[in-house]
Amino acid sequence: MKKGMTIIYPEYEGLYINLTNRCPCSCTFCIRQGKNNEFENVDTLWLEREPTAAEVIEAINLESQKPEFKNYKEFVFCGYGEPTQALDVLLEVSDYLKKNFNLPVRINTNGLADLINNKPVVPLLKGKIDVVSISLNTSDPVLYEKTVRPSFKEKAYPALIKFASEACKNLPRVIMTTVSTTITKEDEEECRKLCQKIGAEYRIRRYIEI
Fold first, then answer.
1. pLDDT for residue 41
2. DSSP reduced 3-state for 183
3. pTM score > 0.85 for this model?
4. Secondary structure letter of residue 29 according to DSSP
5. What is the CB neighbour count within 10 angstroms for residue 137?
6. CB 17 within 8 A of CB 55
7. In the beta sheet, which residues pair with residue 11?
8. Residues 6+ away with beta carbon under 8 Å from 96
9. For residue 171, what is the DSSP state?
10. What's the pLDDT at 31?
11. Looking at residue 43, what is its pLDDT?
Protein backbone atom coordinates (compact mmCIF):
# COMPACT_ATOMS: atom_id res chain seq x y z
CA MET A 1 0.00 0.00 0.00
CA LYS A 2 1.43 3.33 -1.05
CA LYS A 3 1.53 5.93 1.72
CA GLY A 4 2.29 9.64 1.85
CA MET A 5 1.37 12.86 3.62
CA THR A 6 -1.54 14.15 1.55
CA ILE A 7 -3.11 16.39 4.17
CA ILE A 8 -5.28 18.46 1.83
CA TYR A 9 -6.66 17.75 -1.62
CA PRO A 10 -9.21 19.29 -4.02
CA GLU A 11 -12.49 17.47 -4.59
CA TYR A 12 -15.61 18.85 -6.28
CA GLU A 13 -15.64 22.53 -5.18
CA GLY A 14 -14.06 22.00 -1.78
CA LEU A 15 -10.66 21.82 -0.17
CA TYR A 16 -10.71 18.48 1.62
CA ILE A 17 -8.72 17.82 4.80
CA ASN A 18 -7.34 14.33 5.48
CA LEU A 19 -6.69 14.00 9.22
CA THR A 20 -6.55 10.26 9.84
CA ASN A 21 -6.92 6.78 8.37
CA ARG A 22 -8.52 5.41 11.53
CA CYS A 23 -12.18 4.39 11.33
CA PRO A 24 -14.33 2.14 13.52
CA CYS A 25 -16.28 0.94 10.48
CA SER A 26 -15.49 -1.33 7.56
CA CYS A 27 -18.32 -0.61 5.12
CA THR A 28 -18.78 -3.20 2.39
CA PHE A 29 -19.22 -0.44 -0.21
CA CYS A 30 -16.35 1.81 0.94
CA ILE A 31 -13.72 2.71 -1.64
CA ARG A 32 -11.06 1.75 0.91
CA GLN A 33 -12.12 -1.89 0.52
CA GLY A 34 -11.56 -1.97 -3.23
CA LYS A 35 -8.52 -2.82 -5.34
CA ASN A 36 -8.40 0.66 -6.87
CA ASN A 37 -8.74 2.35 -3.51
CA GLU A 38 -7.80 5.86 -4.51
CA PHE A 39 -9.42 8.86 -6.15
CA GLU A 40 -8.13 9.69 -9.62
CA ASN A 41 -6.83 13.16 -8.78
CA VAL A 42 -4.99 12.21 -5.55
CA ASP A 43 -1.62 10.47 -5.33
CA THR A 44 -2.58 8.66 -2.11
CA LEU A 45 -4.74 9.33 0.93
CA TRP A 46 -3.09 6.64 3.03
CA LEU A 47 -1.07 8.55 5.61
CA GLU A 48 2.41 7.71 6.83
CA ARG A 49 1.31 9.27 10.12
CA GLU A 50 -1.43 11.58 11.32
CA PRO A 51 -0.64 15.29 10.85
CA THR A 52 -0.57 17.72 13.73
CA ALA A 53 -2.89 20.71 13.81
CA ALA A 54 0.10 22.94 13.00
CA GLU A 55 0.89 20.86 9.91
CA VAL A 56 -2.69 21.00 8.70
CA ILE A 57 -2.86 24.76 9.19
CA GLU A 58 0.46 25.21 7.37
CA ALA A 59 -0.76 23.15 4.42
CA ILE A 60 -3.97 25.19 4.19
CA ASN A 61 -2.11 28.49 4.41
CA LEU A 62 0.22 27.44 1.60
CA GLU A 63 -2.78 26.42 -0.52
CA SER A 64 -4.48 29.75 0.19
CA GLN A 65 -1.63 31.55 -1.58
CA LYS A 66 -2.35 29.78 -4.88
CA PRO A 67 -4.59 31.43 -7.52
CA GLU A 68 -6.96 28.43 -7.61
CA PHE A 69 -7.80 28.85 -3.93
CA LYS A 70 -10.46 31.38 -4.92
CA ASN A 71 -12.40 28.56 -6.59
CA TYR A 72 -13.02 26.66 -3.36
CA LYS A 73 -16.51 26.98 -1.90
CA GLU A 74 -15.92 25.16 1.41
CA PHE A 75 -13.51 23.31 3.66
CA VAL A 76 -14.36 19.64 4.21
CA PHE A 77 -12.97 17.33 6.86
CA CYS A 78 -13.02 14.11 4.85
CA GLY A 79 -10.23 11.71 3.95
CA TYR A 80 -9.45 8.03 4.30
CA GLY A 81 -10.73 7.81 7.85
CA GLU A 82 -13.27 9.14 10.31
CA PRO A 83 -12.34 12.80 11.08
CA THR A 84 -13.59 12.67 14.68
CA GLN A 85 -10.98 10.01 15.43
CA ALA A 86 -8.62 13.02 15.46
CA LEU A 87 -11.05 15.24 17.35
CA ASP A 88 -8.56 17.55 19.06
CA VAL A 89 -6.83 18.34 15.75
CA LEU A 90 -10.19 18.78 14.03
CA LEU A 91 -11.38 21.28 16.63
CA GLU A 92 -8.16 23.30 16.59
CA VAL A 93 -8.05 23.46 12.81
CA SER A 94 -11.75 24.26 12.42
CA ASP A 95 -11.42 27.07 14.96
CA TYR A 96 -8.53 28.48 12.92
CA LEU A 97 -10.51 28.21 9.68
CA LYS A 98 -13.51 30.08 11.11
CA LYS A 99 -11.27 32.88 12.37
CA ASN A 100 -9.16 33.27 9.24
CA PHE A 101 -11.25 32.36 6.19
CA ASN A 102 -14.70 33.25 4.95
CA LEU A 103 -15.69 29.75 3.82
CA PRO A 104 -18.11 27.28 5.43
CA VAL A 105 -16.65 24.25 7.18
CA ARG A 106 -18.14 20.78 6.76
CA ILE A 107 -17.49 17.40 8.36
CA ASN A 108 -18.22 14.13 6.57
CA THR A 109 -18.69 11.65 9.39
CA ASN A 110 -20.04 8.22 10.27
CA GLY A 111 -21.88 9.80 13.22
CA LEU A 112 -20.14 7.67 15.84
CA ALA A 113 -18.11 10.49 17.37
CA ASP A 114 -19.64 10.11 20.84
CA LEU A 115 -18.67 6.44 21.02
CA ILE A 116 -15.22 7.12 19.60
CA ASN A 117 -14.47 9.88 22.09
CA ASN A 118 -16.53 8.67 25.06
CA LYS A 119 -18.30 12.02 25.38
CA PRO A 120 -20.89 14.19 23.61
CA VAL A 121 -19.16 15.82 20.66
CA VAL A 122 -21.84 18.05 19.13
CA PRO A 123 -21.44 20.79 21.81
CA LEU A 124 -17.74 21.00 20.87
CA LEU A 125 -18.62 21.64 17.22
CA LYS A 126 -20.83 24.68 17.83
CA GLY A 127 -19.35 27.81 16.28
CA LYS A 128 -16.74 25.76 14.42
CA ILE A 129 -18.73 23.60 12.01
CA ASP A 130 -21.38 24.83 9.57
CA VAL A 131 -22.43 21.55 7.98
CA VAL A 132 -22.37 17.96 9.20
CA SER A 133 -22.85 15.22 6.61
CA ILE A 134 -23.61 11.90 8.32
CA SER A 135 -23.50 8.49 6.67
CA LEU A 136 -26.87 6.99 7.59
CA ASN A 137 -26.59 4.18 5.02
CA THR A 138 -29.91 2.50 5.92
CA SER A 139 -32.99 2.83 8.11
CA ASP A 140 -32.58 -0.76 9.33
CA PRO A 141 -30.28 -1.26 12.37
CA VAL A 142 -29.72 -4.92 11.47
CA LEU A 143 -28.73 -4.12 7.89
CA TYR A 144 -26.59 -1.24 9.16
CA GLU A 145 -24.53 -3.55 11.36
CA LYS A 146 -24.21 -6.08 8.53
CA THR A 147 -23.02 -3.65 5.86
CA VAL A 148 -21.24 -0.95 7.88
CA ARG A 149 -19.59 -3.49 10.20
CA PRO A 150 -18.93 -1.05 13.07
CA SER A 151 -16.58 -2.12 15.85
CA PHE A 152 -19.21 -0.84 18.31
CA LYS A 153 -21.67 -3.50 17.08
CA GLU A 154 -25.29 -2.91 18.15
CA LYS A 155 -24.39 0.30 20.00
CA ALA A 156 -23.48 2.05 16.76
CA TYR A 157 -26.82 2.73 15.08
CA PRO A 158 -28.58 4.25 18.14
CA ALA A 159 -25.49 6.40 18.76
CA LEU A 160 -25.58 7.60 15.15
CA ILE A 161 -29.24 8.62 15.43
CA LYS A 162 -28.60 10.38 18.74
CA PHE A 163 -25.62 12.27 17.29
CA ALA A 164 -27.67 13.33 14.27
CA SER A 165 -30.58 14.47 16.45
CA GLU A 166 -28.29 16.58 18.64
CA ALA A 167 -26.59 18.02 15.58
CA CYS A 168 -29.96 19.06 14.16
CA LYS A 169 -30.72 20.93 17.38
CA ASN A 170 -27.37 22.69 17.65
CA LEU A 171 -25.68 23.10 14.26
CA PRO A 172 -26.74 25.14 11.20
CA ARG A 173 -27.13 22.30 8.71
CA VAL A 174 -27.26 18.51 8.93
CA ILE A 175 -27.32 16.15 5.95
CA MET A 176 -27.82 12.40 6.27
CA THR A 177 -26.83 10.22 3.34
CA THR A 178 -27.20 6.80 1.80
CA VAL A 179 -25.36 5.33 -1.17
CA SER A 180 -27.21 4.68 -4.41
CA THR A 181 -27.81 1.02 -5.35
CA THR A 182 -26.76 -0.28 -1.91
CA ILE A 183 -30.29 -0.27 -0.43
CA THR A 184 -33.81 -0.64 -1.80
CA LYS A 185 -36.03 2.21 -2.89
CA GLU A 186 -38.30 1.33 0.04
CA ASP A 187 -35.39 1.70 2.45
CA GLU A 188 -34.48 5.02 0.85
CA GLU A 189 -38.03 6.23 1.51
CA GLU A 190 -37.79 5.14 5.15
CA CYS A 191 -34.49 7.02 5.42
CA ARG A 192 -36.16 10.09 3.98
CA LYS A 193 -38.91 9.86 6.62
CA LEU A 194 -36.35 9.40 9.39
CA CYS A 195 -34.42 12.48 8.29
CA GLN A 196 -37.60 14.51 8.10
CA LYS A 197 -38.52 13.41 11.62
CA ILE A 198 -35.27 14.57 13.22
CA GLY A 199 -34.85 17.66 11.02
CA ALA A 200 -32.02 16.60 8.73
CA GLU A 201 -31.75 16.86 4.96
CA TYR A 202 -31.61 13.58 3.05
CA ARG A 203 -29.23 12.96 0.15
CA ILE A 204 -28.40 9.87 -1.89
CA ARG A 205 -24.68 9.70 -2.67
CA ARG A 206 -23.26 8.34 -5.89
CA TYR A 207 -21.83 4.84 -5.61
CA ILE A 208 -18.09 4.72 -6.40
CA GLU A 209 -17.04 1.48 -8.07
CA ILE A 210 -14.59 -0.45 -5.87
1. 64
2. coil
3. yes
4. T
5. 27
6. no
7. 14
8. 53, 57
9. S
10. 78
11. 77
